User: Which sequence fits this backbone?
């Protein structure tokens, strides 16, 4: 079966799985994050292989370029070291393994059921910007707009969370000064 | 892909890479000469005629300096940092159209490495990962000052990427394409985007300064507070890579600005030239003239303005630039809708 | 653990107000912004400074102890090395202290000459300080403009005494030679060109939006607090107290000149910058007046026991030879007593407290060094500000390591 697949795909998949494994197994959180970034790169490369350049670049911009920078930012600020890391019991590891395993099972099952539908390519050049835009703004316009509203809500929520902390702080200091 | 095209692209990549590196070399020289001009000094003038060989002397010096990796640094990440900075800086040039084409050996060689249909997004993607070189290097040095530099750089990059993207989206909405080549082709003669997007251009210029870590946004290296910022522990060519990548970034962002806002290789009266060879060369020359102008602008700003404080930088980014960019985008959208449909 | 006590200062910080970890940051001893060698051990939360512990003594050269072994005229070179940005003021201040103790009256011309030299030194000092504030905000260009002007001032020093940085200018009783014609020519040229270039520098920074944003509100000090610390000079005036030794306790005929004392309001970095800028203008004004009103007369007091005779005289007359020998060997008798003399130095009241027991050397000499005082207030001024402000506060107070450590 492996012989039928193109070599770039094999190499990329190998790299993806390797780096994804390193994300989980690495002790150093910064190394984990860097490996995760590398994983995103390889996934983007997969997208390119599928001729979905838009997705590839957006994946890079959003995940590798913004979210992981924030991750790294926080990790650097916290400067986690072995001493400061809280000791976790093995039960956590077992629980995580079970839940991840179940998730894997469900995903594989879902792919099994959906079968051939995934491989079909309904629109010519679906990965390109124009086709993607057309589909998004015609067939999937409602979910798309809903996602937009969801993001807006999330943004407002984040701002509120940031603000509330300060408000609470001010309240506490006021109470302290009063009492 | 036939082998001739492959060879053609390979040669083009090598040529563009070489030009980029030589440009970066000579921008260091130019920076010093221009700084000297602004500061009423002479600048480097000892090596070669007018000091023209100075960058090679500098490069040679950097190469032969002792390489020091601090004992408590993360060795591999410490090495990886400047490498990432350099790679990211150099790969951006892939989507920039330097000219239409040149007839060489009977082939019509397109003067662009890859005419991808998402050129603008590609640039945004590369820019957004450009910060990793600084972050990794700053963190791996295991030095507080470099960590401060890295943290400052990352926060700054994230903040200014947003308004940069928003400023670019307005142009994309106007031109209806993400390909840099198409964008340039639309701006025939003097029909440049900057006339339609003046605010967008100013926002983009500011963001470009911030993304290149140039004054007044050079908080990541900020020699008076953080000594050298993220590259405080670096020496030899690793330091050279960081410094080089800054100049390459400057070169590339100037090229992007020229393409997106100033018509790229277009110049008035271009259609009068019929010989494709002369036309190609003239286009490349015009493109480079525009790039040099922006690089000069970058240097001019650096040697004139003080730098921001960190909180002021953030305030400018989030409270001034992003609202302005959103407003610009909204106005562009409204106008283009009106133009296409009327009321 | 809710509280952290800082060693040495005993300051207590509550951890409840802190977001992340507290880090220790060594600002110095070799940091490009310390402009000399001194250290600050900062406790920082991110970039916010929670506490600062200043450390001094990196270039302590025991000047006060050295002075107890040196004859009076040999102490002048030591004073050069206090505030090396304005050595002539230090030199002349020392000469005036000895003159005060020995009761020497100097001619009016000497006073005026001294005023010219001291005001030139003040300009040089303030230029260094203000242009370095520019550098610390990232604007390097103004620095090079003003250092060219400082260079011209150094050339003027050269015309007077042959030296540039450590001037060792003048002698007890006056100057070693009169101002030469070429000095006058150069000074006139300087007075003509300097204000133009200086205003260019002023335009580059004073109303620059980014610069103002950076320096306004950075490292402020209240006038009461400044007085409690016994601030003086431009730093005190920036806080709004109009104290200037040149006016309050005039020396060297400063009462003859008409000049203004600029006063700030908030005592922050911007006020210190603007006060120094204005003082430079006033200094130019004073120099112009001194040149205009310069009385004729001798360029030194007639005190053979302190003032070296001309070399020809040494070879010809007995008395001159004796005085020459005594002065060079440091065997000049000085009356016993104690005296305090202060001059308005480059960055504050530079005082000399001199106790003499009548011997060939001072019994005790203490320099009242303004930098030493400013540096004590430094931790208080930077606590709760960010690192960038701390750097600006340091450069705007013009703390010179040589004067700080003595």
Assistant:
């Amino acid at each position: 079966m492996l012989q039928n697949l193109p070599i770039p795909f094999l190499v990329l998949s190998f790299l993806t799985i390797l780096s994804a494994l390193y994300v989980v197994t690495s002790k150093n959180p910064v190394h984990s994050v860097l490996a995760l970034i590398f994983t995103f790169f390889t996934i983007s490369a997969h997208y390119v292989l599928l001729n979905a350049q838009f997705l590839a670049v957006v994946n890079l911009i959003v995940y590798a370029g913004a979210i992981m920078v924030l991750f790294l930012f926080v990790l650097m600020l916290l400067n986690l070291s072995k001493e400061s890391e809280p000791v976790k019991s093995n039960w956590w590891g077992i629980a995580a393994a079970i839940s991840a395993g179940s998730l894997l099972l469900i995903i594989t099952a879902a792919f099994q059921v959906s079968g051939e539908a995934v491989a079909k390519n309904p629109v010519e050049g679906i990965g390109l910007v124009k086709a993607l835009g057309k589909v998004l703004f015609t067939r999937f316009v409602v979910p798309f707009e809903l996602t937009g509203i969801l993001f807006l809500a999330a943004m407002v929520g984040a701002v509120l969370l940031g603000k509330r902390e300060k408000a609470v702080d001010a309240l506490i200091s006021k109470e302290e000064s009063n009492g | 892909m036939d082998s001739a095209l492959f060879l053609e692209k390979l040669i083009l990549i090598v040529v563009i890479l070489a030009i980029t590196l030589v440009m970066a070399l000579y921008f260091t020289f130019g920076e010093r000469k221009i700084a000297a001009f602004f500061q009423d000094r002479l600048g480097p003038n000892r090596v070669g005629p007018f000091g023209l060989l100075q960058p090679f002397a500098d490069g040679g010096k950097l190469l032969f300096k002792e390489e020091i990796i601090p004992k408590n640094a993360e060795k591999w990440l410490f090495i990886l940092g400047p490498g990432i900075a350099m790679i990211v800086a150099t790969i951006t040039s892939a989507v920039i159209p330097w000219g239409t084409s040149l007839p060489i050996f009977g082939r019509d060689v397109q003067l662009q490495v890859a005419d991808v249909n998402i050129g603008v997004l590609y640039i945004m993607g590369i820019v957004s990962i450009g910060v990793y070189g600084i972050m990794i290097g700053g963190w791996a040095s295991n030095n507080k000052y470099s960590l401060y530099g890295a943290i400052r750089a990352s926060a700054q990059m994230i903040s200014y990427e947003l308004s940069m993207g928003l400023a670019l989206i307005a142009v994309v909405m106007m031109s209806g394409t993400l390909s840099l080549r198409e964008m340039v082709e639309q701006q025939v003669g003097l029909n440049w985007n900057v006339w339609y997007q003046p605010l967008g251009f100013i926002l983009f210029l500011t963001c470009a300064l911030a993304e290149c870590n140039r004054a007044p946004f050079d908080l990541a290296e900020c020699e008076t507070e953080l000594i050298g910022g993220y590259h405080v522990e670096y020496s030899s060519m690793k330091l050279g890579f960081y410094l080089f990548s800054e100049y390459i970034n400057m070169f590339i962002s100037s090229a992007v600005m020229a393409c997106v806002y100033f018509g790229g290789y277009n110049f008035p009266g271009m259609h009068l030239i019929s010989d494709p060879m002369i036309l190609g060369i003239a286009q490349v020359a015009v493109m480079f003239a525009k790039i040099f102008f922006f690089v000069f602008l970058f240097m001019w700003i650096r040697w004139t303005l003080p730098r921001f404080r960190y909180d002021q930088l953030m305030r400018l980014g989030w409270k001034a630039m992003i609202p302005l960019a959103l407003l610009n985008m909204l106005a562009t959208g409204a106008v283009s809708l009106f133009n296409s449909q009327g009321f | 653990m809710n509280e952290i006590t800082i060693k040495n200062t005993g300051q207590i910080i509550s951890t409840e107000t802190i977001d992340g970890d507290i880090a220790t940051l060594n600002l110095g001893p070799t940091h490009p912004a310390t402009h000399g060698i001194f250290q600050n051990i900062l406790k920082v939360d991110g970039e916010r400074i929670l506490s600062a512990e200043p450390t001094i003594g990196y270039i302590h050269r025991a000047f006060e102890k050295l002075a107890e072994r040196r004859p009076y005229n040999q102490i002048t070179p030591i004073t050069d090395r206090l505030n090396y940005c304005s050595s002539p003021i230090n030199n002349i201040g020392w000469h005036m202290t000895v003159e005060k103790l020995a009761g020497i009256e100097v001619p009016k011309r000497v006073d005026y000459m001294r005023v010219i030299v001291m005001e030139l030194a003040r300009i040089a000092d303030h230029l260094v300080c203000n242009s370095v504030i520019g550098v610390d905000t990232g604007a390097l260009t103004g620095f090079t403009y003003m250092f060219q002007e400082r260079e011209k001032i150094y050339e003027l020093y050269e015309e007077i005494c042959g030296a540039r940085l450590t001037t060792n200018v003048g002698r007890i009783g006056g100057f070693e030679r009169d101002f030469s014609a070429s000095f006058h020519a150069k000074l006139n040229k300087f007075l003509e060109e300097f204000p133009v270039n200086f205003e260019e520098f002023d335009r580059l920074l004073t109303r620059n939006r980014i610069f103002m944003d950076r320096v306004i509100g950075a490292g402020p000090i209240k006038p009461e607090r400044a007085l409690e610390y016994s601030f003086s000079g431009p730093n005190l005036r920036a806080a709004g107290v109009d104290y200037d030794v040149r006016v309050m306790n005039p020396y060297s005929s400063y009462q003859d000149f008409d000049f203004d004392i600029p006063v700030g309001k908030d005592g922050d970095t911007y006020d210190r910058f603007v006060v120094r800028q204005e003082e430079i203008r006033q200094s130019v004004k004073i120099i112009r007046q001194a040149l205009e009103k310069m009385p004729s007369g001798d360029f030194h007091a007639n005190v053979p026991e302190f003032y070296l005779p001309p070399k020809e005289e040494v070879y010809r007359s007995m008395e001159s030879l004796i005085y020459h020998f005594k002065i060079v060997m440091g065997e000049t008798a000085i009356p016993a007593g104690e005296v305090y003399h202060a001059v308005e130095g480059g960055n504050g009241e530079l005082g000399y407290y001199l106790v003499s027991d009548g011997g060939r050397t001072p019994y005790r000499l203490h320099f009242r060094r303004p930098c030493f005082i400013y540096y004590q207030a430094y931790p208080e001024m930077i606590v709760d500000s960010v690192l960038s402000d701390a750097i600006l506060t340091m450069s705007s107070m013009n703390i010179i390591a040589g004067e700080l450590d003595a």
In short: Chain A touches chain B at residues 30, 34, 37, 53-54, 57-58, 60-61, 64-66, 69-70, 72-73, 76-77, 79, 128-129 (CB under 8 Å). The CA atoms of residues 51 and 168 of chain A lie 50 Å apart.
